[in-house]
Amino acid sequence: MTKREDTIQMSVGGLTLDPVTKTPIVILKDTENKLNLPIWIGLLEATAMATEIEGIKMARPMTHDLLKNILGEVGCSVESIEITELKENTYYALVHISLAGRQLMIDSRPSDAIALALRTKSPIYVAKAVLEASSVLQQNEEGKEAAVENVSNVSKEKWAEILEKMSPEDFKYKQ
User: Could you tell me if residue 70 is inside a domain?
Assistant: First the structure.
């Protein structure tokens, strides 16, 4: 577990599609809108996030709703989720839960952890080391533009162009 001072609180800024692969991407953003962290996710997890973001209620509980319901019924609360590592282009996450006075950390895919955090209104933290490794900082602390590294076979210049042109409508999930 990363110390809290070594993390940055972020929230879901929206969902979009990779312009090349058409794979869903969840965009995490910091509270000051200076940092973005795109994480490529599966279609099912993107749908789970989109339904929660848009307030769409399904007739029956979907997987992340089921997980939230089970945790609630057994007296467990989700304290936070944390994106902890980026290794070989794979992100890792932990779900921090509290159960009967015990603090537990459960390994998770970031997409599942984020979908659960949305449902439980739990804070999302990202390790600063993950943000540095991802090299997708829009601005560094001095407010200057930072370089965007090659992501998903898209050139630095292309990603910079994509990120600069994004508007809130681009974050709407399209099925």
Answer: yes
Structure confidence by residue, pLDDT tens digits, 113-158: 999 999 999 999 999 999 988 864 433 333 443 333 333 444 445 5
State pTM to two decimals: 0.75
Report the distance separating Cα 93 and Cα 87, nearest Å. 12
Structural domain of 149: 4-166
CATH of the domain at 132: 3.10.690.10
Residue 174 lies in a domain: no
- Asked if residue 114 lies in contact with residue 99, where contact means CB atoms within 8 angstroms, the answer is no
HEC letters along the chain: CCCHHHEEEEEEEEEEECCCCCCEEEEEEECCCCEEEEEECCHHHHHHHHHHHCCCCCCCCCHHHHHHHHHHHCCEEEEEEEEEEEECCEEEEEEEEEECCEEEEEEECHHHHHHHHHHHCCCEEEEHHHHHHHCCECECCCCCECCCCCECCECHHHHHHHHHHCCHHHHCCCC
